[in-house]
Amino acid sequence: MKVLVTGANGQVGLAIARTAPAEAEVIALSRNELDICNPSAMTAIIAAINPDVVINAAGYTQVDKAESEERTAFRTNGDAVGDLARLCEMAGAKLVHFSTDFVFDGAKGSPYAIDDSPAPLSIYGRSKLAGEQAALSMRDALVIRTAWVYSESGDNFVKTMLGKFQQSRPVKVVSDQVGSPTSAHSLAKAVWGLIAQRATGLHHFTDAGVCSWYDFAVAISEEALAVGIIGDPPVIIPIRSEDYPAAASRPSFSVLDKWPSWGLLGGPAQHWRTELKQVLASLKGDRND
Q1: Quick check: 286 pLDDT over 70?
Q2: At 218, which helix (H) or strand (E)?
Q3: Which residue of 51, 90, 144, 181 has the fewest CB atoms within a 10 Å radius of its CB?
Q4: DSSP structure string for 165-199
């Protein structure tokens, strides 16, 4: 099975390459090697590689910046995905694409099922919704909505918090937005599992459990102290969303219903705190090398 991975330098792209099964021949290309917003470049690469599967881990992920860069967000997260879907259809390749919990407005108050109606609050959320709709126009495409992704690499909430904790100043974190943290490693394993199950259509996947961003920050501090990444417990202050200035609105409750996908994968994912421990242990090891 020949697999082309776009966005190879991002946290999800890296995790997909690292967790690839033995039978997968992975060609992982960074944005510098393949810009998905360049249709001619995509056409040439797909023709040259002739992949069986294309995993699109590229995307515009700057939620607040998207409010002032709507055209760029929609070009990357929407139009380019439609172009990629058409190229995959022509090449007979399966497209795997990622979407987000931010396609929902958070008003439901219970886990969102795949058939719940999206109602994004932000440009980012709307652009991702456009992308998933474009991908699903392809008959055998697989679209995976996920949430709060983090890993040892790239820019993410865990690494941002670790940086703030080392500044010896109180850290304010919103406590009224609830979701499910997801390690890129567990997401990548789920992707390979769903491909092996020949899954198509729309699926939800996150790690098990729920928390607020404040709860997540507290857990990061506790686990970072336990492995010695930080030396002193930080002061973390819970605040309301309205007290944290941000350009983009975010859903207050964006927990996804993962049970159908978990069933295909043989059972629930690990709890997010278990995955967090593993990521922080890996970060500690990297710092000791």
Answers
A1: no
A2: helix 213-227
A3: 90
A4: HTTTS-EEEESS-EE--EEHHHHHHHHHHHHHTT-
Tokens standing for residue 215:
């709860």
Distance CA 208, CA 75 (A): 32
Residue of 31, 27, 37 lying closest to 9 (CA atoms):
31
* Number of structural domains the chain divides into: 1
C-alpha distances out from residue 137 to 83, 130, 274, Å: 11, 11, 36
b/e code 181-218 from CB counts within 10 Å (16+ = b): bbbbbbbbbbbbbbbeeebbebbbbbbbbbbbbbbbbb
User: Active-site residues: which are they?
Assistant: 124
- Cα distances from 246 to residues 68, 131, 143, in angstroms, run 12, 24, 28
> Residue 145's closest CA among 198, 189, 104?
104
Q: How far apart are CA 50 and CA 285, in angstroms?
A: 38
CATH number for 120: 3.40.50.720
Which residues form the domain of 80?
2-154+182-208+255-270
Distance CA 130, CA 257 (A): 21
pLDDT in tens, 82-115: 999 999 999 999 999 999 999 999 999 899 999 9
- The rounded distance, in Å, linking the Cα atoms of 10 and 154 is 6
pTM for the whole structure: 0.94
29 part of a folded domain:
yes
Q: Is the pLDDT of residue 288 over 60?
A: no
Residue 168, pLDDT > 90, answer no
Percent of the chain scoring above 90 in pLDDT: 92
| 8 A C-beta contact, residue 146 and residue 96 | no
Rounded to an integer, the average pLDDT of 134-158 is 94
